[in-house]
Design a protein that fits this description.
The complex is a heterodimer of chains A (399) and B (275). Chain A contains 16 helices and 14 strands. Chain A is an alpha/beta fold and 399 residues long. In chain A, strands 3-4-14-9-10-13 form a six-stranded mixed β-sheet, sandwiched between helices. Chain A has a four-stranded antiparallel β-sheet with strand order 1-2-12-11. Chain A has a four-stranded parallel β-sheet with strand order 7-6-5-8, with helices on both faces. Chain A is globular and about 55 Å long. Chain B is an alpha/beta fold. A nine-stranded parallel β-sheet of chain B has the order 5-4-3-2-1-9-8-7-6. Classes of the chains: A alpha/beta (399), B alpha/beta (275). The interface between A and B is large, with 39 and 42 residues. Bound molecules: pyridoxal-5'-phosphate. Pyridoxal-5'-phosphate binds next to α5, α11 and α14 of chain A. The site of pyridoxal-5'-phosphate has 21 residues of chain A, from α5, α11 and α14.
Chain lengths: 399, 275
């Protein structure tokens, strides 16, 4: 396979995906973020400060842990990239800290964010507390219910959490509300988007901040196994933990890159969040990509046990990678995700987030077409502490 | 680009207003709220009361540039079954009774799902004169704008208070029908006062505009509309009328109430006098 071209282009395009479909008010702010981000990328002081925070504050590098008992069960060599061990409990902090540092460079004092599972909200609240920024997080009220512990964590961190009652009351509606806030307060506010989606430069910038996952994992697996993995597996909500893992492997043509979408509880529109299996081309929340929509172009509600995967569209780079055949995507149902929680908890002593559990739950299916002893890297994007009460409720257990 | 006949309805209205030394009053409502039948009556009624140009919102599930009033209207319209096709049909019915210029205010996704070329052709055939795309800056997929324009639709550009001088010139060159000055940072919705920098902001646009400059976002009273019209070539009122429709959606005299209020706004703007 020929080398994968560098994307996005200057207009923020990943082939036909990406771009900037936003109200005119935001164009100057996006231009400003592009300029500040480009400058930060080549500024050794910025990179050194980010590196210092990622090592001494977040606890990077995160380990690559051999899943010994799971490996025996699946007859493959399964390695877990332990983003669950990051400070705040998920990969989201990698991007939140990067963008919070960028906020200082932009000379802005106020930050807004959307959150689904609450992990990006907690990460952003944390970064803002650390750097002395004012922070407000938008969260759908349905997500506030199912991720209640994270709501209180954000409040403890001094962040204002605003419940979103509009639309489906989940992640997409929180993004709408955050965009509305940004349009209103754009002169003093930076919007820290939590996944590799939205208008340019977010998909690129979030990917870059998350690529530390794949850079570490690639070096770690080479050291531990003396070879590259047969496959890398990650769950895909907006797509940030997956693109962060995949990106440094893009030109390793023999490494299969497998994204796992939320299959929910059925294949009908509204029963899942599998954008590549039921969605179609569209323009949504600042980008063009695959969108779960009805025939009239109205974006429909999604369903997943995990709030973090419960989103109607997907980052544009994933759409581009899928079209090129460089990455493949499959779905894991709610039931498979719950099975994934048990599989990892009981075999490895690690309770994964419900999002990450989608990548674990389909492993038995994924390894079926990999050779015996194949090396597989799975991203454990977050820990399951936030989900314990919700898992109990889903399984009918009274705490 | 040669202006096609449909775009002329807007240009003609501005020309007529100019000879009468009057500014334009533009009313926004969300199509399909409370029903497409009501939309037909509301447009005909408002036009009869002196509204110069109508903006019809195409309802959308995720209207990120809109405040609570327009969001709720979109939700009501969708719940009542409004579709892009339904909005086009409603305009066809309006055209049998009124020649008022009509633009659609649209987020791109419903138009893309309909098919942009098919939309452009059907819209023009039904008597739609222009499109105001909320989430399509001109450099984004320029072929979409070209498809709309080639069918004969006037594609309006928006300028915001944050827009840089160089970009103002660019947008002024791109805009057709009129140039829409979004006079506030923020989403649509009623506000108590006009911004202090309005006169200065509009002056920079008038200096570069090749078509009329109309002012909207946050204008709700006849006094504010008149004030805005004094600076530009027209004033746009949306959320205020949308909230009236929300309040009176089930009343028998909905059309009278909304048309009367639109007429008061139009009269206040027309009283300003042209440049
Ligand atoms: C632990 C965890 N994993 C994955 C996701 C999904 O997001 P993304 O696809 O951007 O990694 C989330 C989102 O909230 C999360 O909290």
């Amino acid at each position: 396979m020929s080398a994968i071209p560098v994307v996005p282009d200057a207009a923020g395009r990943f082939g036909r995906y990406g771009g900037r479909y936003v109200p005119e008010t935001l164009i100057p702010a996006l231009d400003q973020v592009v300029a500040a981000y480009r400058a930060a990328q080549t500024d050794p002081a910025f990179q050194a400060e980010l590196h210092r925070l990622l090592t001494r504050y977040v606890g990077r590098p995160t380990p690559l842990t051999k899943a010994t008992r799971l490996s025996q069960r699946l007859k493959r060599r399964i390695w877990l990239k332990r983003e669950d061990l990051c400070h705040t409990g998920a990969h989201k902090i990698n991007n939140a800290l990067g963008q919070a540092l960028l906020t200082l460079r932009l000379g802005k004092k106020r930050v807004i964010a959307e959150t689904g599972a609450g992990q990006h909200g907690v990460a952003t609240a944390t970064a803002c507390a650390l750097l002395g920024l004012q922070c407000r997080v938008y969260m759908g009220v349905e997500d506030m219910r199912r991720q209640a512990p994270n709501v209180f964590r954000m409040k403890l961190l001094g962040t204002e959490v605003v419940g979103v009652e509009s639309g489906t009351k989940t992640l997409k509606d929180a993004v709408n509300e955050a965009l509305r806030d940004w349009v209103t307060n754009v002169t003093d506010t930076h919007y820290i988007i939590g996944s590799a989606l939205g208008p340019h430069p977010y998909p690129m910038m979030v990917r870059d901040f998350q690529s530390v996952i794949g850079r570490e994992a690639r070096a770690q697996v080479l050291e531990a196994e003396g070879r590259l993995p047969h496959a890398c597996v990650a769950c895909v909500g907006g797509g940030s933990n997956a693109i962060g893992l995949f990106h440094p492997f893009l030109n390793d043509a023999d490494v299969r890159l497998i994204g796992v979408e939320a299959g929910g509880n059925g294949s009908g529109l509204g029963q899942h969040a599998a954008r590549f299996d039921g969605g179609s081309f569209g323009v949504f929340q600042g980008m063009s990509s695959y969108v779960l929509q009805n025939a009239d172009g109205q974006v429909v509600g999604t369903h997943s046990v995990s709030a973090g995967l419960d989103y109607a569209s997907i980052g544009p780079e994933h759409a581009w990678l899928r079209d090129r055949g460089r990455a493949e995507y499959r779905r894991a149902s709610d039931a498979q995700a719950l099975a994934g929680v048990h599989l990892l908890a009981e075999n490895e002593g690690i309770i994964p987030a419900l999002e990450s559990a989608h990548a674990i739950g389909v492993l038995p299916e994924i390894v079926a077409d990999l050779p015996d002893d194949a090396v597989v890297v799975v991203n454990v994007s977050g820990r399951g502490d936030k989900d314990v009460a919700e898992i109990a409720r889903l399984e009918g257990v009274k705490l | 680009m040669t202006p096609a006949p449909a775009a002329n309805r807007i240009a003609r209205r501005f020309a007529e207003l100019a000879t009468q030394k009057k500014k334009a009053f533009i009313a926004y409502i969300c199509a399909g709220d409370p029903s497409l039948d009501a939309t037909v009556e509301l447009v005909v009624g408002m036009a009869a009361q002196g509204v110069d140009i109508i903006e019809l919102g195409i309802p959308y599930s995720d209207p990120m540039a809109d405040g609570p009033a327009n969001q709720a209207a979109s939700e009501r319209a969708l719940a009542a079954g409004a579709t892009v096709r339904g909005v086009i049909d409603a305009v066809r019915r309006i055209r049998a009774r009124s020649d008022v210029p009509i633009l659609v205010y649209a987020y791109m996704n419903p138009l893309l799902a309909y098919g942009i070329e098919r939309f452009a052709a059907d819209a023009v055939a039904a008597g739609i004169d222009g499109v105001l795309p909320l989430d399509l800056p001109p450099e984004e997929q320029p072929e979409l704008r070209v498809a709309l324009a080639q069918a004969g639709l006037a594609v309006v550009c928006l300028v915001a208070p944050t827009t840089t001088p160089a970009r103002r010139t660019y947008l002024a060159e791109q805009s057709r029908g009129f140039l829409y000055y979004v006079c506030r940072l923020g989403v649509t919705g009623e506000r108590t006062a006009l911004p202090d920098d309005l006169a200065a902001q509009v002056a920079t646009l008038k200096a570069v505009a090749i078509c009329p400059v109309c002012i909207g976002f946050g204008i709700s009273t006849p006094e504010q509309a008149a004030d805005a019209a004094r600076h530009g070539d027209g004033a746009i009122v949306g959320s205020h009328l949308v909230r009236l429709i929300e309040r009176h959606g089930r009343d028998r005299d909905l059309v009278d109430i909304v048309s009367r209020r639109a007429g008061e706004l139009a009269a206040a703007v027309h009283a300003v006098g042209g440049a």
